[in-house]
Amino acid sequence: MKPVVLLVTICCMLCVSGCWDNKNIQDLLYVSAIGVDHKDNLYEVYIQTVSFSNVAKAENAGGGSGPHVYVGKGKGKTLSLALGNLYDTVQRRLYWSHVRAYLFTENAIKAGGDEYFDNLKRYREFRYTPWIFGTKESIEEIFKTPSFFQMSPITNILSEPEDNYRQKSFIKPLLAQEYQIHLNEPGDTAIVPTLTIDKNAWQTEEKSENKLKINGVFVVRKNDFQGWIADTQLKGLRWMEKATSRTSVGVQSATVSLEKPKSKISITMQGVKTIFNIEVTVKGNIVELLDSHQSEQEIEKEVEEKIKEELRSTFEEGLHLEADIYNFRNTMFKKRFKNWQDVKLTSSSLNRIDVRVKLQHTGELKKV
């Protein structure tokens, strides 16, 4: 009897053991980015797929033929139908767990707002951790823009924007989960970075090479696309962002690198009018001295005035779109002001701006 039991046990073990459903990495198509557009009442979905069999070679060697990139396109009346349309032509299984970025056009945000994530969160392979960007350019061309030295396209700012932001903190990258929080938080405004293609900044020995660049933001409130603002009009935004790691300011006497600003919004009532005040404190150091006759205190004063100017200018640029660029209404909500929904922002709503700059390292103030 025991040999029979042993034989049956061994047969059962053979049936359930092993990696019978294992697939090699080259047998799957890994989606690294999803783009969404909306035209003629149809959703157009683009996916960027990378051949991971060549990624390790390209990243280690920094050359060779480089990883192959394919951009797929599907159409449908809804986002899920557009994604499903891609399955008609895909030659292998699509694997969605490695999506690193979502890219939306202006028309896509107007058509869907936050509704896209209702579809994406229902399938187990999708995550809230990818970055989210907007664009006024062709999604196909954005997805096909190469990285440096024929490295993987997942090493560009579409998929990995954090290193660039730490080095130059100007427009903060936005995670999909943060985007959802902004849209659901009362009185909050989502600032979505937008990408463009710079065709002139970089060249190889043979030709100019396209590279991605953040050129502004889409301003979005829940169920309301408010517009686009260029990066040149957003210089004040960095002083209100606690994640700012390092950013520079140029004044007449020096170029100053500033780090980790601390901002505070205070609210006062003048009769029925709501007034907002901003306080900013920031530390930094001189990286380039242009006028050796200026004292440390004079340079600090120059930078303070420059920051004040940038803060007010960006606020007023937002007003052109009827946008609450500094989230004043959300601050009112958190401080339990009952009239936060009724506040109409004007140029006079931003009253006092106090800035305190402290130069920790000045180097040699007097040129020899």
Task: Give a structural overview.
With 368 residues, the protein is of the alpha/beta class. Helices cover 26% and strands 35% of the residues. It has ten helices and 14 strands. Strands 1, 2, 3, 4, 5, 6, 7, 8, 9 and 10 form a ten-stranded mixed β-sheet that branches. A hairpin with a 2-residue loop joins strand 1 and strand 2 (42-50). The chain is globular.
Mean pLDDT comes to 87
Helicity level: 25-40%
Largest sheet: 10 strands, mixed
Spans of at least 5 consecutive residues whose pLDDT stays below 50 are none
Give the structural class: alpha/beta
Envelope shape: globular
* Total DSSP E strands: 14
> What is the radius of gyration?
26 Å
Strand content: 35-45%
Straight-line N-to-C gap: 100 Å
Helix tally equals 10
What is the H-and-E element order? HEEHEHEEHHEHHEHEEEEEEHHE
Draw up the topology in text.
Elements: H1 2-16, E1 28-39, E2 42-50, H2 52-61, E3 69-76, H3 79-86, E4 93-95, E5 101-105, H4 106-112, H5 116-120, E6 131-135, H6 139-144, H7 162-167, E7 174-175, H8 176-184, E8 190-203, E9 208-221, E10 224-230, E11 247-250, E12 254-270, E13 273-289, H9 296-319, H10 328-334, E14 350-361
